[in-house]
Design brief:
Elements lengths: L13 E4 H6 L1 H20 L12 H16 L3 E8 L2 E10 L8 E9 L8 H15 L4 E7 L3 H9 L3 E12 L2 E11 L5
Parallel strand pairs: 4-5
Antiparallel strand pairs: 1-2, 2-3, 3-4, 5-7, 6-7
Helix pairs in contact: 2-3
Length: 191
Amino acid sequence: MNTASTGGRPPGPVILDAMELTSDRGLGARFAASAHRILADLVREGAALGWVDPPSPDEVAELLDHVFSAVHAGDAALRAAYLDRQLVGLGYWLRHTRPTHRPHADLEKIAVAATAHGRGIGRALTAALIADAGRAGIEVLTLDARGDNSAALHLYRSLGFTEYGRLPGFVAVGELRYDKVFCMMDFRHEG
């Protein structure tokens, strides 16, 4: 790894969109398996990604097929973060399907491998997805996060999301209860 051009720091992540990812046969062929590894490991460690138990490879493949299909229809964006051609993070948003909600999308997932935390990958993925939403004409980008995920909530606020609601004790993980926090970014008010 050449760190001379980065001031001695390891180089940052390469953030690819869905089209760039699928055009690289090597990365595209490994994407579902690599994504499964990241998601399953994070859930196993207690991450708030929507699963109580680690998802199976088939669940992740089915989810990604749905997202890629939505990307091709113009109803989603997917981003993948790589360090040295190894997937270390992914995220996506999906446009709402109800006709009255079509101008809006949900930022569904941002997942960064535990081994890559603290390297700005979550920020880079989220910023790229925000830019994609703006280019796609999304008016309001929403997300929800588990209330104890203070790092993610701090990241979202620092990128311009505002909290618009909270359901106390709504998320149940065994006997534990967490708030569900709703955040939004309103593109309609940007100059």
